[in-house]
Amino acid sequence: MGEQRGERHGGAPKVRLINYTPRPLETVTWAALISYWKEWSSDSFENVNRKDVEEHLPRILSYGHESILEHVTLTFSIEGISRVCSHQLVRHRIASYTQQSQRYIKLDVDDVEGTFVIPESVRGEPELYGKWRELMRKAIELYEESCRAGVHQEDARFILPQAVRTSIVVTMNLRELKHFFGLRLCERAQWEIREVAWKMLEELVRNDDLRPIVRWAKLGPRCVQLGYCPEGKLMPQGCLKRTKERWNELVKRHERHGYDG
Ligand SMILES: Cc1cc2nc3c(=O)[nH]c(=O)nc-3n(C[C@H](O)[C@H](O)[C@H](O)COP(=O)(O)OP(=O)(O)OC[C@H]3O[C@@H](n4cnc5c(N)ncnc54)[C@H](O)[C@@H]3O)c2cc1C
Question: Is 184 a catalytic residue?
């Protein structure tokens, strides 16, 4: 099996953009204009319109003045990922997280598939897959048996594999999200967190208030941001073209005439 990597079979994670700073493009533009407009004032915020946004924001972002992106935050809910994935997510430090507690919530035991994420690479090996399922079934049984015996779930959870599903709420500002996308939309990222990152990006491009900034600020993998791949020899073959095309195709699919520029 060697380096074979998985994709999810069923039970894909559910990713939703729950909330974000109101009038995000206007907020970023208005904040940026304090540097350039002598007549800038707090009152001018209400007057910033889409024309101002189109006139100033793409240009300012093209200079690489990215601190203005920090004035917009976005909150996502991510459901049904493994703890392997959530651990990678929370390594991104300039963000806020709240995760389902294994101390306060007793694991809602489903069947093996509902309780755990099993990679496609394992599913492709029937004998191995059977062994995984058996081990996971036993882990669930022992977890339940421990709880029944009076062991608190905060201790019973020690028996659970990292594959156990979890849900998490994450809030990031747009600048950190760009950094996150740079690393995690890349084919070098592990498949599950990559899947989550692409779903987060899709939430942005589906949203009329946010879609234009995806292109203007290059909210994409690092090959899109930089125009080349910094991974050099580590880059999987053909990945540069594939990843750029995937990003372009996703953004284009949701772009409409007019405001998107
Ligand atoms: C392909 C891949 C493989 C990986 N493999 C491993 C691995 O084998 N082992 C492992 O431990 N991790 C691994 N990671 C995780 C990686 O090391 C980072 O922890 C993770 O990607 C978070 O990114 P970050 O630290 O750049 O940024 P974030 O935490 O998102 O922070 C954003 C940026 O803020 C700045 N920053 C944040 N905190 C500080 C600070 N304290 N001091 C100075 N600057 C700061 C940095 O510029 C940083 O890039 C891997 C990640 C990827 C994408």
Answer: yes
